[in-house]
Amino acid sequence: MAEEETAAAQEAQQQQFVTQRIYTKDMSFESPMTPNVFRQEWKPAVNVDLNNKSTRVDDQGNHEVVLTLTITATLEEQTAFLVEVQQAGIFFVSGLEEDAMRQLLATVAPTILFPYAREAIDNLVVKGGFPALMIAPVNFDALFRQAVAQQAAEAGEGGQIAPEASTH
Q1: Does residue 166 lie in a domain region?
Q2: C-alpha to C-alpha distance for 101 and 92, rounded to whole angstroms
Q3: Which residue from 33, 100, 112, 136 lies 20 to 30 Å from 93 (Cα-Cα)?
Q4: What domain range is 43 assigned to?
Q5: What is the mean pLDDT of residues 144-166?
Q6: pLDDT tens, 35-67?
Q7: Domain-located, residue 113
Q8: For residue 41, what is the domain's CATH number?
Q9: What are the C-alpha distances in Å from 134 to residues 46, 61, 83, 97?
């Protein structure tokens, strides 16, 4: 009995997920309608596009995860502003099977990165002279399940499941 508890404790200790570093990889802000946009009533249509990808950095278990958010605000079908932020992080993962690791990198890592990206976007929009843009929280677990289900459906139609699920 004690041997089983020790083995379980060792396995739990060997499974690790550690945030090594969080950083901004890229950001841009464009406002092609300025200054005329400030003379119009501000009721924009706002489109949010999310993308998440991960790549192995080295053979020690480090992975870079890049969360890309692209926000487009339009007034009367003209772009009021376009902002894109690539928020990235390096995450150390060990002791997990490939599927579990892939899920962590597609759900937990972007959940950690999202508040940083949201803050960067809000700062850029406000500095561009527009009202604050508070992006709603994102459920990356639901997006991951949806992407996996979509890949499984596509695989059933004669395609193959891609090695990594993308969250859009």
Answers
A1: no
A2: 10
A3: 136
A4: 14-156
A5: 71
A6: 999 999 999 999 999 999 999 999 999 999 999
A7: yes
A8: 3.10.420.10
A9: 11, 34, 13, 36
Q: What is the pLDDT of residue 51?
A: 95
Query: Could you tell me whether strands 45-56 and 62-75 are parallel, antiparallel, or unpaired per DSSP bridges?
Result: antiparallel
- Evaluated on CA atoms 117, 122, 123, 127, the torsion sign reads positive
Task: Please report whether residue 168 resides in a domain.
Answer: no
Number of domains in the chain: 1
Q: Using only C-alpha atoms, what is the Rg of the chain?
A: 20
> For residue 35, is the peptide bond before it cis, meaning its omega torsion is within 30 degrees of 0?
yes
Q: Report which of residues 164 and 14 the model is more confident about.
A: 14
Nearest residue to 82 (alpha-carbon basis) of 24, 136, 133, 140: 133
Give the model's pLDDT for residue 124: 97
* Residues 6+ away with beta carbon under 8 Å from 32: 78, 79, 82
Q: Report yes or no on 45 lying in a domain.
A: yes
By DSSP bridging, strand 45-56 and strand 16-30 are unpaired
Could you tell me if 96 and 18 are in contact, meaning their C-beta atoms sit under 8 angstroms apart?
no
pLDDT of residue 157: 67
